[in-house]
Specification:
Length: 275
């Protein structure tokens, strides 16, 4: 992959991953993420979605996995970087939001302390600079920056607020790429809709690219510019969201679409009559 000839591409990958002597979890997976776009990565549980996220972040060693190929990001191959170099990228240029906010946040630390640690991981300066960054991050996710809120522990917040705190920590250093790994699956429908709208607003306002990983086609349809379908360790179909969802070519994508919940006929008829 020649990065210099693809100025609109932020990340380009061609990667295979193994866990020990087991068959490959990812087999020659090829995809790209363009600058400022939202790419949806869709697949069932166990298809390798989270493994791909860990490969991008350079966290596979902790899972005793091995990766081969290349993941080119911002002019360098992430698979060739040392751990110290990767630590300089994580949180600063590539950030991650996970599924369960109350598990990801430290229950013993106040929100202010956790936000401070997120800032100090990649910045230094006086307290005023830190406070300003915290305030801006909270405002960007529509959370209060009052002292009362900052003194809370994660257990004193709703799941939706906790997820917004995680997102604030992730976007504090304005990363070029945000990886959202099943970031809405633990939320109720209303909160999920609010978080999806937040992701889209962050994408539009900052130009931050988002890799949105999910098994939920409905949420993917509402936020993503393009979709890549992952099945049995391979990308079997990719393209613009509308094209993939309305005219799926691969048999697996067609099965995914057929499995989507359908509106009961009586409710559908009532909606049509109301219109």
């Amino acid at each position: 992959m020649d990065y210099s000839t693809q100025p609109d591409v932020l990340l380009a990958a061609r990667v295979s991953v193994w866990y020990g002597e087991k068959p490959a979890v990812l087999r020659d997976v090829k995809f790209e993420i363009r600058r400022g776009e939202v790419l949806g990565l869709v697949g069932q549980s166990g298809s390798g979605k989270s493994t791909l996220a860990m490969a991008i972040l350079g966290l596979l060693d902790r899972k005793q996995a091995k990766a081969e190929g290349a993941i080119e990001f911002d002019g360098c191959d992430l698979l060739t970087l040392r751990e110290r170099e990767l630590r300089g990228l994580r949180g600063r240029k590539v950030a991650l939001v996970l599924q369960s906010p109350l598990s990801s946040l430290n229950p013993a630390l106040k929100i202010r302390t956790q936000l401070k640690e997120a800032w100090r991981a990649h910045a230094s300066g006086p307290r005023a600079d830190c406070d300003s960054a915290i305030r801006a991050a909270l405002e960007s996710v529509s959370l209060p920056s009052s002292e009362e809120f900052l003194q809370k522990y994660p257990s004193q917040m709703s799941v939706g607020q906790a997820q917004r705190v995680l997102i604030a920590m992730a976007v504090m250093h304005r990363p070029a790429l945000l990886i959202a790994d099943e970031a809405t699956s633990a939320l109720d429908v209303i909160t999920q809709s609010e978080i999806l709208a937040l992701f889209r607003e962050l994408n539009r306002s900052s130009g931050m690219a988002i890799l949105y990983i999910s098994h939920d086609l409905a949420s993917v349809a509402g936020i993503c510019d393009r979709i890549a379908i992952l099945h049995q360790g391979q990308i079997v179909e990719s393209g613009p969201t509308e094209q993939v969802l309305t005219s799926p070519r691969h048999e697996y994508t067609q099965r995914l679409m057929a499995a989507m919940p359908k509106m009961p006929q009586r409710l559908a008829a009532g909606k049509a009559a109301a219109i």
